[in-house]
Amino acid sequence: MLELLAENGPVSAEFYLYQAMIAFEGRGDAEKALKVLENIQETDPGYPQALQFRIQLLAALKRHNEALEAAAEGVRRYPGLARFYILEAGLLAESKELPKAREIMEQGLARVPGDADLHYRYGLLLREMGDETGALSAMEQAIAKNPEHAEALNYLGYTLADESRELDRALVLVQSALRQDPENGFMIDSLAWVYFRMGRLDEAWTQIRRAVSLVPDDPELWNHYGDIAKAMGKTNEARQAYTKALKKKHKDPELIQGKLRGL
To answer: With a threshold of 0.85, does the pTM exceed it?
Structure first.
């Protein structure tokens, strides 16, 4: 079909992008999608989007080095587009090249300082590197650039609650995040956790039950469910929740086992 259309005159980049998306998202054929993208020329205005999609396809195919080369090409060609710094740094982080990933992100922040998502992703990288203070500062920057950045609002609100500080602000932050994404189970979990830290147990219970109904397979949510249930004297429900957290491979099984022994 594509060859037939090409014979009848120029075909737009948007058409090829659409066909590539159908190949990948509709049929799961990443190789076919890559082949279709080859029709989009470097001089075409749609090339940046095609290059971004190509990087994502190569990553999906586990062709890491090719994906990394394509992401580096994006940074070179389009230094004003934050998405390519994010993609290159993400690929470097996947291969545990964290200092290199940080260097790329900092290049991006120098070139595109107003991009909220770049600050947010930088914060996630700093957290992975163990710099929680830096991560929180980056989240503050993301929110300053975009006060409706739901993920940064949620991250900061949850972290404040987890540290039992600035709880009134934590509540405002998480509620603001939920206004952007009201059915996000992880953000609802954050709201439950803020209420729990505030001692508003009935509200915490309502929200944690909503959260696990939306995200039933996350072990940390079941850990929170257990803590809230225990605080409310619901021992059987707490035991069931902690057991689920273990079954779903919680990152700290000894912590959960200790909570079970303490019931």
So the answer is: yes
Over residues 59-83, the pLDDT tens digits come to 999 999 999 999 999 999 999 999 9
Full DSSP string of the chain: -HHHHHHTS---HHHHHHHHHIIIIIT--HHHHHHHHTTS-TTSTTHHHHHHHHHHHHHHTT-HHHHHHHHHHHHHH-TT-HHHHHHHHHHHHHTT-HHHHHHHHHHHHHH-TT-HHHHHHHHHHHHHTT-HHHHHHHHHHHHHH-TT-HHHHHHHHHHHHHTT-SHHHHHHHHHHHHHH-TT-HHHHHHHHHHHHHHT-HHHHHHHHHHHHHH-TT-HHHHHHHHHHHHHTT-HHHHHHHHHHHHHTT-S-HHHHHHHHHT-
Residue 162 Cα to chain centre, angstroms: 19
Q: Alpha-carbon dihedral of residues 78, 20, 120, 61, nearest 10 degrees? A: -100
Those residues whose C-beta lies under 8 Å from the C-beta of residue 181, and which sit 6 or more positions away, are 150, 187
Task: Report the length, in residues, of the chain.
Answer: 263
At 81-116, the pLDDT tens digits run 999 999 999 999 999 999 999 999 999 999 999 999
Which domain-ending residue is among 168, 201, 234?
Answer: 201
Structural domain count, the chain: 2
Distant-in-sequence, close-in-space partners of 4: CB < 8 Å, separation ≥ 6:
none
Distance, C-alpha 167 to centroid of its chain:
24
Q: Are residues 35 and 113 in the same domain?
A: yes
- Is 211 inside a domain boundary? no
